[in-house]
């Protein structure tokens, strides 16, 4: 039960960290900078890695899973619960990133919208 709580809090922390990634991407786009897929992937990987470092450690395992204190951090992370919720979080994150922002150079070359004929 404690492990499920830890996993749920880890998902919330991941959402907050991915929110920071989205904010930084938006700031760069609005200022006219481009964000490469590699830059985005690195930022997302760091967000995921920071959650793993903060929530899936031997010290945390000793408290919430004392019978599994000998497994590695990677094994603990791989066996986390709430994977479906985490998948939904990543799906939402990608959807939010797909929304075009004013000032994004990637959309500057598109034809302007015209008003509909009466």
The chain-level structural class is: mainly alpha
* Shape call: elongated
Approximate helicity band? 55-70%
Alpha-carbon Rg, integer: 19 Å
Number of helices: 5
Q: What is the average per-residue confidence, as pLDDT, rounded to a whole number? A: 82
Q: What is the terminal separation in angstroms?
A: 62 Å
Tally of discrete structural domains = 1
| Percent of residues in beta strands | under 5%
Order of helices and strands: HHHHH
What can you see in these coordinates?
This protein is mainly alpha-helical. Helix content is 64%, strand content 0%. It is built from five helices and no strands.
Tell me the layout of helices and strands.
Layout: H1 2-30, H2 37-55, H3 58-64, H4 73-78, H5 83-97
Top keywords for this entry?
elongated, 118 residues, 0% strand, mainly alpha
Task: Give a short synopsis of this structure.
This protein has 118 residues and is mainly alpha-helical.
